[in-house]
Amino acid sequence: RILHPLLWLAFYIGIVSGPLSWGAYHPPVIDTSAATASAAEFQAQIDEKVPEFIRSKYVPGKVNVHEISSFGCPYCRKLHPQLTKLLAAYGDKINFVRTTLPIHMSVDACAAYYCAQKEGKGDQFAECMFEEPPQSAEGIVKHAQHCELPEKEFVACIQSEEAQKA
Predict the structure, then answer these.
(1) Residue 129 burial by CB count (10 A; 0-12/13-18/19+): exposed, middle or buried?
(2) How large is the average pLDDT for residues 40-47?
(3) Which of 63, 53, 57, 33 shows the shortest CA–CA distance to 45?
(4) What are the tens digits of pLDDT across the range 65-121?
(5) Most C-beta atoms within 10 A of its C-beta, which of 50, 60, 78, 111?
(6) Are 68 and 124 in contact (CB under 8 A)?
(7) Over the Cα atoms of the chain, what is R_g?
(8) Are 119 and 106 within 8 A, CB to CB?
(9) Residue 85 region, left (φ>0) first, then alpha (ψ -120 to 50), else beta?
(10) Euclidean distance between CA atoms 107 and 165, whole angstroms
C-alpha cells in the first residue's frame, strides 16, 4: 500500500519537472558571427560539433540539405513535394543528400534506392517510391521498370552485400 502513493508522487514529479528541465538542454551551436576570426576557426568548430557522417557530405559554398527519410514514412511523403519544389527553385545553390532508412519498409527498399542512385536515376526512383510506396519486392521492381533500370542487374544489385550495407 505504501508503494502506490510513492509511485504517483514520482510520476507527478516527472510530469512537472520534465518540461521544465527540457529548456536546460542546449544543442551545440556553431558561431557564425563576425567574432569568428578566420575560416580555419569556423572549420574547426564544424569539425568538433558536426558528426563525421554528415560532415563528409558537406559542400562548401552551398546550402547543404541532408534529408534522412523513409519511403514508408507518411510525413516524409508529405514533405517530398515541397522539398522537390524548393530544390527546383534553387537549383545549383543547394547540395542535396538523401539518406534512406528502413522505417516502415524493408531494407530492400533502401538498397533499391542505393542501386538506382548508382545508375544515376536515384531522384526519379525516389519520386516513384514516395508517390506510391511499394508493399512488396514486386512493387520495387515495378518502380525500377518505370525508371528504365535493367531488371536483372537491378535485382542482383539489391541483393548484393554492398547495397544491403549501404
Answers:
(1) buried
(2) 76
(3) 33
(4) 988 888 888 898 899 999 999 999 998 999 999 988 887 777 888 899 999 999 899
(5) 111
(6) no
(7) 22
(8) no
(9) alpha
(10) 9
**pLDDT band with cut points at 50, 70 and 90 for residue 59:** confident
Nearest to 66 by CA among 87, 46, 49, 48: 87
Mean pLDDT within 136-165: 88
DSSP notation for 39-95: HHHHHHHHHHHS-HHHHTT--TTSEEEEEEE-TT-HHHHHHHHHHHHHHHHHGGGEE
Q: What angle do CA 123, 113, 103 make, to 5 degrees?
A: 115
Q: What are the two backbone dihedrals, phi and then psi, of residue 152, each rounded to the nearest 5 degrees?
A: -60, -50
- Closest by CA position to 84, among listed 120, 128, 54: 128
Element (H, E) at 96: strand 94-100
Q: In one letter, which amino acid is 67?
A: E
